Amino acid sequence: MTLSRVNENGLVLLGCGKMGSAMLQGWLAQGLNANSVTVIDPHPSQWVQGLVQQGLHLNEPLPTTPAICIIAVKPQMMGDALPALRALGNGTTVFLSIAAGTSIGAFADALGDQSPIIRAMPNTPAAVGQGITALIGNAHINDADMQMGEALLSAVGQTVRLASEDQMDAVTAVSGSGPAYVFHLIETLAAAGVAQGLPKDMALQLAKATVAGAGALAQAADEDPTQLRINVTSPNGTTAAALEVLMNETDGFPALLNRAVTAAADRSRELGKE
Ligand SMILES: NC(=O)C1=CN([C@@H]2O[C@H](COP(=O)(O)OP(=O)(O)OC[C@H]3O[C@@H](n4cnc5c(N)ncnc54)[C@H](O)[C@@H]3O)[C@@H](O)[C@H]2O)C=CC1
Ligand SMILES: O=C(O)[C@@H]1CCC=N1
Prior knowledge:
Order of helices and strands: HEHEHEEHEHEEHEHHHHHH
CATH superfamily of the largest domain: NAD(P)-binding Rossmann-like Domain
Bound molecules: 1,4-dihydronicotinamide adenine dinucleotide, (2S)-3,4-dihydro-2H-pyrrole-2-carboxylic acid
Strand order of the largest sheet: 3-2-1-4-5-6-7-8
Radius of gyration: 21 Å
Oligomer: single chain
CATH topology of the largest domain: Rossmann fold
Shape: elongated
Number of domains: 2
């Protein structure tokens, strides 16, 4: 991955909370110089404050034309946060937002119609380099801009390009929020193990390793998840007994997850209107 354009012209990170920190950590590990980075955050973590010693600029005046400005504040904070970036809306600096809901159009209104804008949706496994981010750019984003955005996000996991911004609500509901569904699966699988008589710590260890192992196998295997499921399921065995419950048409996993994903996508659409 080449970060030369970013190292030469600088990167501004607006909001360095959970997602901002996860991405920054990945960029620094991939060779981004700390002194090319300006972080704007009214409540910086100890970790970010520590990076000042390595040359990172924290809450300092913005560089004039950084290569890219990453927007990683909550959607509800946009109104307060974006005016600080208006000076960068000169058509040279690429803006890349990871905020749920907020549309490219809303950023163009706030930052200027000529601004090159990428909207992206990463997820928290970025903190361990195993995220996935979907991206889409506006008409002012050229190939080199998009490659720069993808290079930055691929420092923390996989990337996919969307065909249309409309798909972003579904992406947010599947992979943006998705880690929370999986963490809840771990919690509830462990609790069910405790209910079956296992010690709590052991149940949690079993549940975490099972989800991590199944995820790794699903990524690595040639077979699709359907075949991998069939491979676990002996005729008339234990898995078949469980799947009979989980695959129930009315109150099983498919109906439940469909309702959950629909609720998340609907909320993403609402956030875009707030
Ligand atoms: N947490 C997640 O799983 C994901 C979050 N996102 C999006 O990422 C964005 C950030 O989310 P998190 O990192 O989870 O939130 P967070 O609350 O951990 O971080 C937000 C940061 O913004 C800072 N901030 C608040 N007002 C500011 C201002 N006016 N100027 C500069 N910084 C300001 C806060 O001090 C905080 O450090 C949100 O828009 C969210 O929709 C996207 C994908 C996944
Ligand atoms: O819950 C949220 O709104 C954010 C967006 C995707 C994950 N977290």
